[in-house]
Write the structure tokens for this entry.
Amino acid sequence: MNTKAWGFAVGLIGAVAALSAVLTFPTSAQAPAPDGAAIFESRCKTCHEPPIERAPGKAELAQRPRADIVRALTSGIMAPMAAGLTPDQINAVAAYLTPAAAADDSSAVGVEHRMLAVPAGGVGPNPMCAANPPISARAQGDWPSAGVDDASSRYQPHPGLTAKQVPDLVLKWAFAMPGGGQPTVVGDWLFTTNRNGKLYALDAKTGCVHWMAEGLTSRTTPMVVRSNISPSGWATFVGVSSRTLHALDAQTGKPIWTSDVLEAHTSSVLTGSPIVANGRIFVPISSIEEASSMSKAYVCCTFRGSLAALDETTGKLLWKTPMITGPMQTIHRDGKDLTGPAGAAVWAAPSVDRKRGLVYVATGDSYTDIDTDGDDAVAALDMKTGQVKWKHQVTKGDNFVMGCGPKSVSGNCPTPVGPDYDFGTTPILFTLKGGHQVLMVGQKSGLAYGFEPGSGKLLWKTAVGAGSALGGIEWGMAADTHHLFVPVSDIIELFRPPAPGEPAGRPGLYALNPANGAIDWSTPAPVAPCHYAADKAKASTCVRAQSAAPAAMPGVVFSGTLDGWFRAYDAKTGKVIWAYSTTAQTYSTVNGVPAQPGGGIDGMGPTIAGGMVYTMSGFNGAARVGSNGVNVLLAFGLPDKK
């Protein structure tokens, strides 16, 4: 399974739901209250006590908000395991696992979002901005999408500060939210989603709230564009857990349209951010079926990853192209009829090539013994028709589902089980000196690749990490005008020492030459102190995996690690020129949390715009390391002039 999905689905325990309040169910007065402990023993203990593979343990589940447990069991990753349970029984399990959780009698918010003139609820009191000036884009230097530009370079050429000023960065404000993702910034407006269903439009300089929409549970980065479909002339697009895409007026938060459900499969999710080009919105579709397959009751597997194109004006589906083609086949094993080929989820945002009329995606692993050429592949699709122009598979036979160790009883495990080498990164289109281009993408195998963008021909590949299900290149890369910056996770040492003959992990940041893949420099992730709030008084096992996507500006690249450190590196040499521990202190947030802790930095990376740098600390990621029930968005800028 792609660890990005695991961080989204298991680490967040229900990020695929579309509710923001604690979900409670009425208990029948006639029937005795269900025994949550007994249900846990019969349904959940096998995977969670002691925890197997990447499943969270009982102690960790106790740290989660009760609403997250309920959502996971009703509409999230644990729904297949909870099949047949009544609402009362699900609520009882959640209450058993979270005995210290505060009661909340607020009603559930539906999938369709609503606007709150004066937002109520949430993590703390939302500080409303005194004024809501019109969105005014900078002439240069906004960050309107996950990858900042069509090529998804994650490079900000006009950051509003210089490399010499980066060592002077200080914390300007902090904002708490459950499961927050990477923000986008246009002018002085910042937009960010989170798992409690609140889409925020904040003031980028102060963190005050312009508006907030509810019922939009998402981990994707909202894209903000000029558009005639919006009364203000600015629209934002966000994919949510109901597998729908929503268009809102970016100035007011009022809804414009909501798409139809883009994928009917019950295990499907939207993890990659949408990107807009030529009047079309491209939406990648992924799934958590690898985790659903841990259940003996689940028959694996039928999901197929795809890319959808929607009309920007109406949200109408124009085309949807599956990454796996051909009829489903059936094999009989261990008393079960299993189906395939399946898998090839598209976890990350696509990138677009207007010159060639192509949109590029990278896919995840296969789920079954029935092999396919669609998994662990990079593909180029025609932007107008969705036709696959070329596809290059780099790893064959990577057939994988969760929980396939010696104790597995699901009957869904492929034979043999593959290495789980998904692509979880967005392809980056890079222009070399002389005008030739190369399409670059990173894999959990620890390999970075360069392809000819018109044909898919492999130009080079470079090993930067040992690779594993939680190793290699996880969430993304960045490229300035000279280098491809590649963070390496290689977190496998957290779970077990390397096997005989297996290479040791190499977490750190690497700079590659885009022309040939040569490593120009590498900086190992430093061993540094940290403290994860969930560990309370215990000493924390500080994990230096560098799995989050980086972000670059002239002369500098920013990158975070799972131990909560956020660093700036000299882009030419790899020398660390600034470092900030996000776990060394707590934060008095602008939305009223007096002692909000930081945590690991994982997942979607930092954003650079308007002289500010933003990162999310405490993200509930793939390895369940340093995660908090509530994350904190940190905004860094230069000190105020005296």
In short: Helices lie at 3-11, 36-43, 45-48, 58-61, 66-74, 87-97, 289-292.
